[in-house]
Amino acid sequence: MKRPGPIISKRRRKTSILAIIVLILMGTFSVQRIEGLPRSLAEYQSQRLSWSACYENFDCSYLQVPIDYKNLSLGRFKLRLLRYKALEQKDRIGTLVINPGGPGASGVEYAYNAQYIFSANLLQKYDIIGFDPRGVGESAPIKCLTDKETDASYAADSKPDSEKELDLLIQQVDEYAKKCESRTKNLANYATLDSAKDMDILRATLKEKKLNFLGVSYGTYLGTLYAQLFPQNVGRMVLDGAVNPNLDSEAENLAQAIGFDTALDAFISDCFLKKDCPLQQPLDKGRGEIIALFNSSATSPLKSSSGRAVTESLIVLGTASALYDPSSGWPRLRAGLREARTGNGTTLLALADDYSRRRSDGTYSTNETDAAFVIDCLDWRGARSTASIKVRAPEFVEKAPVFGPYLAYSGLSCQFLPATSPDAIREIVTTPIIIIGTTRDPATPYIWAQDLHNIFQNSRLISFEADGHTGYGQGSTCVDSAVDNYFLTGILPTSELTCKSPA
């Protein structure tokens, strides 16, 4: 989702119980320069990656790709790569390229956690490679806001309750877009379609005939576009937390608003079973208390131990952040709501900061906020006007009364940024792939997995009956063993698979 305004990313990165370790990688990568500016894609595909040892068990490199695939003379971007080499090189199956979502999340950080994400069997047989897509991390990063400006953006009023507030929000997103354009060159060349083309250059430089790929959340959109462009080059592919590539962005935001409301109801119902639940029964009353907290904080922000005001938007973000992971997020949300009854927003603020990757010193560990702001808009489908958004806003409130009012205006910024108008995708025929959908996923609703399954003609759907975001690596032996077996053997489950939550 776009900033400022509703601040839940449309296709949020995968979260897990593991803390992502932020790498300080600048200046540690070897670069194999191509002599002169390449005049053809074949020259990019034939570049030799120069790997150097880094961080004990890893190798580092850069990949060079054209800024503009239609105008190679414009120049090139350098994309960061990190590799965890297969432990059994003699019996190595190949390379597994991974993307954790976003847009804006770092594939390099994701690969750095390979030993915690993947089973021993996969680590023995695959080189795991993560890359920062163009615009992310140190891969020609998109830069828009300073840290202080990012703080102000996240704290800004995200639910306009009057024409005056709407005018202010429009002014803020216009200013945000102008800062992106003034601080980042070639802004129109950061769309996911370009990143999908970059992945095929990566495949070629790795000397792989087929691309083996794990895409999570927004990473499923990246994988889908790759498969659309290069169906003959798809190897073993798993798309977890699927995104429907054909929804217009307002419909996508509405589906996500409904998904977050559904996840919140699941949290509230679970809360009632706990002794420390601060909400009153029944469900409607508990939900109403949360809405009342959101509304009251619009004029009376909560306080925090750091002295920062915990505004309405930060409380909404902190609440949404907790819904991604029931095991760790739900207990913290119960604690945060209990604190809020006394005017204390410290825990809710911490949840919001976890989501935005804000450090305690006020700096942000990544440029994910800016990258998501721009890439989401470049990928935006449908109308780009305030008028069209206003027309649909009442539907958001009706169908998702908690999060709908905030997500309704999430597309305001896109009228101020370039449009790439991606084509609709009706059918993709590749080698067999796996699609995973979690039935109560707040960020990527289960129906999107069903939609994507219908697009991929040779796919198998794994339905994970659980709360939280995504299915692989969430404690389900049923899901994990099916995925691992597929990556190791290329064999799909014999039929559509339904896996129960381990909890």
Provide a descriptive summary of the structure in words.
This protein has 503 residues and is α/β, with parallel strands linked by helices. It has a domain at 83-141 and 188-246 and 424-500: 3-Layer(aba) Sandwich (Rossmann fold), CATH 3.40.50.1820. It is 41% helix and 13% strand. The chain has 18 helices and ten strands. The protein is globular, with a radius of gyration of 22 Å.
Search tags:
globular, alpha/beta, 13% strand, 10-stranded mixed beta sheet, 503 residues, single chain, 41% helix, Rossmann fold
Gist of the model:
This protein has helices at residues 41-45, 107-112, 114-117, 120-125, 147-155, 163-183, 192-205, 218-229, 249-271, 283-297, 312-322, 326-340, 346-356, 368-378, 386-399, 404-407, 446-455, 477-489, and strands at residues 52-54, 58-66, 76-84, 94-99, 126-131, 211-216, 234-240, 433-440, 459-467, 497-500.
